[in-house]
Design a protein that fits this description.
Blueprint (H helix, E strand, L loop, with lengths): L2 H67 L2 H21 L1 H32 L1
């Protein structure tokens, strides 16, 4: 065996290793993208269902108050005032009520994925 054959064999193995690493990175990107899209679609579904529930509860409260006051205008007016107060509180305290909790959820989800990958790598290495 001459030096040229040894070098070709060495670089051939290196090329195969690099191709395998490239494929592994592609699979990890696809996995993370699929997980992210799953989270987005589940969040959209949850938000949609929440809005439908709020709509139905609002209608129920409106009709309930309307029956108490024998006037649809007053019943649904009070319901509207409740929603406006809820909106004002949400806007005023959006950082505490909305931004921080969602930021913490995203951070915990991302670090959980990172920790799970480390555990899987350790188990495969052992």
């Amino acid at each position: 065996m001459n030096i040229k054959d040894i070098i070709n064999k060495l670089f051939g193995g290196l090329q195969k290793y690099l191709d395998t690493e490239k494929e592994l990175i592609k699979l990890k990107v696809v996995k993370e993208l699929a997980r992210f899209l799953g989270m987005v679609f589940s969040a959209i579904f949850i938000i949609t269902m929440f809005h439908l529930c709020v709509l139905m509860v609002g209608m129920w409260i409106g009709f309930l108050l309307s029956s108490f006051f024998d006037n649809h205008l007053i019943g649904f007016g009070i319901t509207t005032v409740i929603y406006i107060l809820w909106l004002i509180v949400s806007v005023k305290y959006k950082k505490t009520l909305l931004i921080k909790p969602f930021t913490n959820i995203v951070i915990s989800a991302m670090t959980e994925t990172s920790n799970n990958e480390k555990i899987e790598d350790e188990q495969q290495g052992a």
